[in-house]
Design brief:
Butyryl-CoA Dehydrogenase, subunit A, domain 2, 12 strands, five-stranded mixed barrel, Butyryl-Coa Dehydrogenase, subunit A, domain 1
């Protein structure tokens, strides 16, 4: 049974990030720790009481395709209706169109609860949110008035339509075409891997579709973005005739069985009516708005499932009696949680999850500042930092989620490989997250190319300078804090050196840099996780010294920070060596020899 990690979320929001992060952001003037706490409390109840009971059901009784449309897992439609009626879809939406305007950092914390309780369910509102953001930033006023109120309320859902059978991540190969038809277009083509592309939750689905207007330039320069509703929508927002878009099949997948992954056919008859978003041939630019939001959201899915796997593994280890540990309270067999290697695996899962969570919410706070701070220079700095960190959050957290879920199976031993224990579902479900919205390799290439190379490492240098300054300022006599601080500073130095080596490679031998892009991204995530653990440890030690309540929680923070510093952060040294010296071992190998 999933338990919402409210204590840790409150700690990250209120202690590690703090209300001051949104100071001088007028639109978030009403945000407070009390408000965040009450929202998290209610979200935790919904996650535990409504979504979690459907977690296993969704795996065993996934979505079903029929010629009339997709039928979702029993119980999911009622859960979605309760979700929408509870206002959860409105949390971060624009108040002008019915949203609550909450900051992204709180939205990120709440989304973790949906993903941890039921990842397959969470994907539906996630895609809707991406479509909402694209319309908010790029849609016309008429389009916003027509579509946003019902999308933000959750009355309608949204999707992203990028991938085609012949064009996976290479969007320049898109063939779906858009034929002008007065003030609208008629779309013809097929899209695959469309998450929640059809369902029985809502009376309408708003598809955001990449297509090529007849006569447009080849490649990515000729792609436009269109709104294609499942049912046509009148000027008054009322639903009209069925549009020419059908779900012709759904995929049979490794995991997330309750989330229908659809093949959508546009224009089987006279063409699917679509409305151009923004300017022609700028669709890829607009779609990246959706993808950027989605990449942060997919990143949190990684550590959300890691949290679930950690809880399940720890529960098992506390009750599973096997063997006698070297040090145990009893003379005979004891619960396996007393075995050193079981403790090591559980601590790895816990410490990694806490690091990933902290980095994701910190990144979300930077995006809030970028969107709402009163000072233009501060907004620009925060935007650069948020953009820098999004590929790290997406790739590092999802890879970490897979690793944690795998360890969860290992803690269960042979029973972890048996479906009835449920340990395997977390692994199967989270496995897609490193592929969604750009694979780990694509994220790493974006990280070193667009984020590190474009400004010659300026945003990274500014971040590392701030990190080093914060670490140096930590003043605590607690031994765990000292260990975490020292290890984090060593990691910062290694990341700085590796960044300089990478920049040199980008300038002279790009293939060498691309060959170590994933290790470099992993290095960045690992080091930044060490920074946030050290800060967390310092806060926890101060709370304990002041006699604050919940001493076990703060002692746990010190324990995970110490473990991270001793057993996870040292991998930074090896990763830094790979970045500096490992590229040629990939770049110089003839592909025929592999």
């Amino acid at each position: 049974m999933y338990r919402a990690p409210l204590k840790d979320l409150r700690f990250v929001l209120n202690d590690l990030i703090g209300e001051g992060a949104l100071a001088d952001c007028p639109q978030h003037a009403d945000y407070s720790a009390e408000l965040a706490g009450s929202i998290l409390e209610e979200a935790g109840k919904f996650a535990e009481e409504v979504l979690d009971p459907l977690y296993r059901t969704g795996d065993l009784q996934g979505a079903k395709w029929t010629p009339d449309g997709v039928t979702t897992t029993p119980g999911f439609k009622a859960a979605y209706q309760a979700f929408a009626e509870g206002g959860w879809n409105q949390l971060s939406g624009d108040p002008e169109y019915g949203g609550q305007g909450m900051p992204r950092l709180l939205g990120t914390a709440v989304q973790e609860l949906w993903a941890g309780a039921n990842l397959a369910f969470k994907l539906c509102p996630m895609l809707t949110q991406g479509a909402i953001e694209a319309l908010e930033l790029c849609g016309s006023e008429a389009q916003k008035r027509r579509f946003l109120p019902k999308m933000i309320s959750g009355e309608w859902t949204g999707t992203m339509n990028l991938t085609e059978p012949q064009a996976g991540s290479d969007l320049g190969q898109i063939r779906t075409r858009a034929a002008p038809d007065g003030d609208q277009y008629r779309l013809f083509g097929q899209k695959i891997f469309i998450t929640w592309g059809d369902h029985d939750f809502t009376p309408n689905i708003i598809h955001m579709v990449l297509a090529r207007i007849d006569g447009a330039p080849a490649g990515t320069r000729g792609i436009s973005l269109f709104i294609v509703p499942k049912f046509l929508v009148g000027d008054d927002g009322g639903i009209g005739a069925r549009n020419d878009v059908q779900c012709i099949s759904i995929e049979h997948k490794l995991g997330i069985h309750a989330s229908p992954t659809c093949v959508l056919q546009f224009g089987a008859r006279d063409g699917a009516v679509g409305y151009l978003v923004g300017e022609a041939n700028r669709g890829l630019e607009y779609m990246f708005i959706m993808m950027n939001a989605a990449r942060l959201s997919v990143g949190l899915e990684g550590y959300a499932v890691a949290e679930r796997a950690c809880q399940q593994a720890a529960d098992w280890a506390r009750t599973r009696v096997q063997g006698r540990p070297p040090v145990a309270a009893t003379s005979g067999p004891a619960p396996i949680i007393h075995h050193p290697d079981i403790k090591r695996m559980l601590l790895t899962m816990k410490a990694s999850t806490e690091a990933m969570r902290a980095l994701a919410i910190y990144t979300a706070s930077q995006l809030d500042v970028a969107a709402a701070h009163s000072d233009e220079a501060t907004r620009a700095t925060a935007q650069a930092r948020g953009d820098l960190l999004i590929p790290v959050v997406k790739a590092w957290s999802t890879e970490g989620g897979i690793a944690a879920a795998s360890l969860g199976i290992q803690v269960h031993g042979g029973m972890g490989f048996i479906e009835e224990t449920g340990a395997a579902q977390a692994y199967r479900d989270v496995r897609i997250t490193t592929i969604y919205e750009g694979t780990t390799g694509i994220q790493a290439n974006d990280f070193i190319g667009r984020k590190i190379g474009r400004d010659r490492g300026a945003a990274m240098a500014a971040l590392l300078a701030d990190v080093a300054r914060e670490l140096e300022a930590i003043d605590s006599g607690d031994s765990a804090v000292q260990i975490a601080k020292r290890a984090a500073l060593e990691g910062v130095a290694e990341l700085s050196q590796a960044t300089q080596a990478l920049l040199a490679q980008l300038g002279s031998a790009q293939d060498l840099a691309l060959s170590v892009a994933v290790p470099y991204l992993t290095l960045a995530g690992t080091v930044l996780g060490g920074w946030l653990h050290a800060r967390s440890a310092a806060i926890a030690a101060a709370r304990l010294a002041a006699g604050a309540g919940d001493a076990d929680f703060y002692r746990g923070k010190l324990a995970t920070a110490r473990f991270y510093a001793a057993q996870i952060l040292p991998t930074a040294d090896g990763l830094a060596r790979i970045v500096q010296h490992g590229g040629a071992a990939v770049a110089e190998v003839d592909a025929a020899l592999i």
